[in-house]
Design a protein that fits this description.
ABC transporter involved in vitamin B12 uptake, BtuC; two-stranded antiparallel sheet; globular; mainly alpha; single chain; 19 helices; 1% strand
Length: 442
């Protein structure tokens, strides 16, 4: 009985050939279940899948631009209730124009913040840039466009100098740029002389281009709609091109329906903004240049090797170094970019006042530029952020300033509210990082 039982058991055991056993050892993935990218599952589930993914991101601390968008909606609602002129075409046109100068400084600061560092010199560099331009044009009769190029080169050189002391000598960025804040401000005062002001002819090329009365396509109504249409078309073409490349590479890609929905929402927002600005005087040249700079810089950060290096260094210096990235090179170039955008921002300020003055780049310019980048969603801890945070942050700050001006509030109230908003943004960033660590995503 026992022999029969044992024979049955032996016959019931699966027979594994030697070749099969060897194949299993040599190729352990031969019987493995293929791994499916979770993003594909999300898109297969349709709208429900996106809701699930959104909830997962919120729980994991991946808030993105959501807090600042909600905050902007709340701010606009409160000021519109208090004063019905807040959302008027003229007021929104004013907000869009005056945010561009400080916004340029904020773009450069985004690069520095992505490394987890700070640049305290951008305000002084912007003031010095407007003064250098005025000295070249007014005192020495130089061609305006050549003077503009030399002014931007000056800003880039100053930033590179800061980066060199930081990357090569090892001086903390805070100390280097604080010294620059004082030193370049002193040089600006010396160049301005006893008068303290150099008036720049308003018909001077760059100054006229950025002036308050200068609008895209000379106030033609078609200008705003042309910009809106161009933005929509470029987004549509870029999205389909990315879809094609990702499909060819065999990686997850956005379905056509999602692309069309995204582009449709962008079209609604773009043409609505164009219609509002056309009810005023149109789209200012300063805003057009600012938006163009955002698009270019966003492409550099997200689509180029250099941009990936910046994020890599901000995410972990040692890991970046082991990956073969030249950390000193990235640090120096990032501060050079910050200095260059500070110089461009200084030209925007010069365009607003048609002069170089003692107040250029002074006051709370530096703090507002830093606040814009942080409020917009760029992390103070490095490794996370977007240049579009400069736009979102400046919309919040400029909206607060303009709204309080309409309500005849004191400047002290503006500072306190802006400071509270900045603190709130940093708190959200800190809580978000803690949630990501808890979820294993940081």
């Amino acid at each position: 009985m026992s022999e029969t039982s044992n024979t049955v058991k032996k016959d019931a055991e699966p027979v594994v050939s030697e070749d099969t056993a060897v194949a299993s050892v040599e190729d352990p993935t031969s019987a493995a279940v293929p791994v499916v990218d979770p993003r594909l599952l999300v898109r297969e589930e349709g709208f429900k899948g996106y809701i699930t993914e959104f909830k997962r991101k919120i729980k994991g601390g991946e808030l993105g631009s959501l807090p600042v968008v909600i905050g902007l909606i709340i701010i606009w609602t409160i000021f519109q209730v208090k004063n019905d002129r807040f959302l008027s075409a003229d007021n929104l046109s004013s907000i869009s124009y005056f945010l561009s100068a400080t916004g340029m400084l904020a773009i450069g600061l985004v690069f520095v913040l992505l490394l987890g560092e700070i640049d305290l010199s951008v305000g002084s560099v912007s003031g010095l840039a407007s003064t250098v331009f005025a000295v070249f044009v007014v005192n020495h009769g130089m061609n305006e466009w050549l003077a503009l190029v030399l002014t931007i080169v000056t800003g880039v050189g100053i930033g590179a100098l800061h980066g060199w002391f930081f990357a090569k000598i090892g001086v903390p960025a805070f100390v280097v740029t604080l010294a620059g804040f004082l030193g370049w401000n002193g040089l600006m005062l010396w160049l301005l002389g006893d008068s303290g002001t150099i008036n720049i002819p308003s018909d001077s090329g760059p100054v006229h281009l950025l002036g308050q009365s200068s609008f895209f396509m000379d106030q033609a109504i078609v200008g705003a709609y042309l910009l809106a249409g161009l933005g929509v078309v470029l987004t549509l073409v870029g999205s389909f091109n990315e879809q094609r490349r990702r499909r060819a590479a065999g990686v997850p890609y956005r379905p056509t329906s999602e692309i069309l929905i995204r582009v449709g929402l962008l079209a609604i927002a773009s043409f609505a903004a164009a219609a509002v600005l056309n009810n005023a005087e149109g789209v200012s040249n300063a805003l057009v240049i600012f938006l163009a700079a955002l698009v270019v810089v966003d492409f550099v950060l997200r689509r180029t090797t250099y941009g990936r290096k910046v994020f890599a260094v901000g995410g972990g210096i040692e890991a970046a170094r082991r990956a073969g990235i030249s950390v000193p090179m990235v640090r120096i170039t990032v501060f050079a970019i910050s200095g260059g955008f500070a110089a461009i921002g200084g030209m925007f300020f010069a365009g607003q006042t048609a002069s170089a003055t003692l107040n250029a780049g002074g006051g709370n310019t530096l703090m507002l530029a830093i606040a814009a980048a942080v409020i917009g969603g760029t992390s103070l801890f490095g490794g996370r952020g977007s240049v579009w945070s400069a736009l979102l942050g400046m919309l919040v700050i400029q909206s607060i300033q303009t709204g309080l001006d309409l309500l005849n509030m004191n400047t002290s109230i503006q500072y306190m509210i802006t400071g509270a908003v900045l603190l709130g943004a940093v708190v959200i960033d800190s809580v978000s990082r803690r949630s990501q660590k808890a979820a294993g995503r940081a």
